[in-house]
């Protein structure tokens, strides 16, 4: 059974094929609609956290290809509480042809996949966010035509989104420059795994934000406080202001650089309005690309 839990689990060539298929499905959708590749197939969507993009893009993606998506909210199945994860996986897998899960603990999505008779897709965990990274890669490819040799500078909290971008860099041949305060950087194990997959140049740490953006093709940021870290929000608000993506910082970046953010944004914290809504922003095409990137993953995993 093939799952989509981390980009590191997939060969680079297959990930590139998923992006090619996303490009095809996007064009097909925009020129008359998608063929019903998943007619009669259902996706169970387990959410332990809130969501706008992931929830709606998965649901619409299934609908566009003739399938059905079932939303299961945080209060409903009590993953690992009301019932063991192993039992949930086997029961749910008896009703649907695929499971998408958004969880707190990455171990839980791994356990779901271990026990599920159908493919499991990681819709964000505390460890990573692989579907987001695929949409980001699609967005970068649309902008620059290719990914090889690009430099993505990530400014702010080294989190689940950052880690998936690092793994994407390793698989798609671009470089991740991280600019994050001490204590909020990526773990060595993730960096070593990325280097093993993509070469030593895949990752670089630059401490000064103005230096970090100087040769950036993409400037990427995300919230300083991720879901599940709310009790640290005050502390984090004191640490991260030097890492804000604002107009002043953008004056140090190349003119061609684009700005990306997985959203939701906390405007006035990690990013300011003039940048989020400015000419270099790609925030909304990026969000829209979740639909196409995930449709490709769904058709690949459920379409057999
Ligand atoms: N970027 C993202 O995953 O957004 P949601 O939390 O709204 O799904
Ligand atoms: N890092 C954020 C991403 C939200 C899509 C979080 O985990 O809350």
Describe the structure.
This protein is α/β, with parallel strands linked by helices and 304 residues long. Helices cover 42% and strands 13% of the residues. The strands form two sheets. The chain has a five-stranded parallel beta sheet. It has a four-stranded parallel beta sheet with strand order 2-1-3-4, sandwiched between helices. Strand 1 (42-47), helix 2 and strand 2 (68-72) form a beta-alpha-beta unit. The model has no long low-confidence stretch (mean pLDDT 97). Phosphoric acid mono(formamide)ester (CP) binds next to helix 2.
Q: Would you summarize the structure shown here?
A:
With 304 residues, the protein is α/β, with parallel strands linked by helices. It has helices at 12-30, 53-64, 85-92, 106-115, 130-144, 160-172, 188-198, 209-213, 233-239, 247-250, 273-276, 283-302; strands at residues 42-47, 68-72, 98-102, 119-122, 151-155, 175-179, 203-205, 218-221, 258-261.
């Amino acid at each position: 059974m093939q799952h989509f839990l981390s980009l590191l689990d997939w060969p680079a060539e297959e990930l590139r094929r998923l992006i090619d298929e996303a490009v095809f499905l996007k064009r097909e959708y925009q020129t008359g609609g998608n063929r019903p590749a998943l007619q009669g197939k259902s996706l169970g969507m387990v959410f332990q956290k809130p969501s706008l993009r992931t929830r709606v893009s998965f649901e619409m993606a299934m609908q566009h290809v003739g399938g059905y998506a079932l939303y299961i909210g945080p209060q409903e199945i009590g993953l690992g509480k009301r019932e063991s994860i192993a039992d949930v996986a086997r029961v749910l897998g008896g009703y649907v042809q695929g499971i998408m899960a958004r969880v707190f603990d990455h171990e839980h999505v791994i356990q779901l996949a271990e026990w599920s008779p159908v493919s499991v897709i990681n819709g964000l965990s505390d460890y990573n966010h692989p579907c987001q990274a695929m949409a980001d890669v699609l967005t970068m490819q649309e902008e620059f035509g290719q990914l090889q040799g690009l430099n993505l500078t990530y400014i702010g909290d080294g989190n689940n989104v950052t880690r998936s971008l690092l793994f994407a860099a390793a698989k798609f041949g671009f470089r991740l420059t991280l600019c994050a305060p001490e204590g909020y950087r990526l773990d060595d194990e993730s960096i070593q795994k990325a280097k093993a997959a993509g070469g030593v140049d895949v990752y670089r740490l630059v401490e000064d934000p103005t230096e970090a953006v100087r040769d950036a093709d993409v400037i990427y940021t995300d919230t300083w406080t991720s879901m599940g870290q709310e009790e640290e929000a005050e502390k984090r608000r004191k640490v991260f202001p030097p890492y804000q993506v604002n107009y002043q910082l953008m004056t140090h970046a190349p003119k061609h650089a684009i700005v990306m953010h997985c959203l939701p944004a906390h405007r006035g914290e990690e990013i300011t309005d003039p940048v989020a809504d400015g000419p270099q922003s790609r925030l909304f095409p990026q969000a829209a690309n979740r639909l196409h990137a995930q449709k490709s993953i769904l058709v690949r995993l459920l379409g057999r």
